[in-house]
Predict the structure of Helix-hairpin-helix domain-containing protein.
Amino acid sequence: MRSVNTFWKGWWPWFSIFACCTLFASPFALAARKTCPDFVDINHADVSQLRCLRGVGEKRAAAVVTFREMHGPYPGPASLAAVVGPKMAQRLRERVVVNVPAAPR
């Protein structure tokens, strides 16, 4: 039968490592999230700004930028569905802004 001291010897180091990592890493995670804008303009945003949208990772953000470069600016938020799908586009609609660049004169 294991004694109580043996339990604390094995348990305590792992708990202290977990606690330290949690305490020291959370401010950095919050600081990274604070740099995200409230609204993202999909016609001008780069990959890092697009990643601020919930559910958009590195691959989807790159796909949005690639589609924009190949087909021109997005006419509206609904056109984002061609890249990320209709359900994702509907979820992102409240944080997506589309500023169409002015035509040259």
